[in-house]
TrEMBL record:
Residues 23-59 form the 2Fe-2S ferredoxin-type domain. This is 2Fe-2S iron-sulfur cluster binding domain-containing protein. GO terms for molecular function: 2 iron, 2 sulfur cluster binding. PROSITE patterns: 2FE2S_FER_1 (PS00197). It comes from the Bacteria. Signal peptide: none annotated.
């Protein structure tokens, strides 16, 4: 069985994930709400911090301007193994 564990440190929650969907959808399914708007990586509204682990972007890295090194865009990425995030 291939699955990942997503730990959201500031809400003290761990999520077991094995579907091929965006991180934003996983968070929504698990009643963890974050702000978002475009769902395409353009606006940067959903930006959160990746503390540990790797993610992959669907097509290419988002074009939202002025993001920090550990910022990720859950609307547009999927976990690549276990990750720890901060909302």
């Amino acid at each position: 069985m291939n699955y990942s564990i997503i730990e959201v440190v500031n809400v003290n929650k761990k999520i077991i994930y094995k579907k091929n969907i965006s991180l934003l959808c996983i968070l929504e399914i698990n009643n963890i709400n974050i702000q978002y708007q475009c769902r395409s990586g353009y606006c940067g509204m959903c930006r959160i911090e990746l503390i540990k682990g790797k993610i992959c972007y669907s097509i290419k890295q988002p074009i939202a301007a002025l993001f920090k090194k550990n910022d990720i865009f859950p609307c547009y990425c999927q976990p690549d193994g276990n990750i720890i995030i901060k909302i």
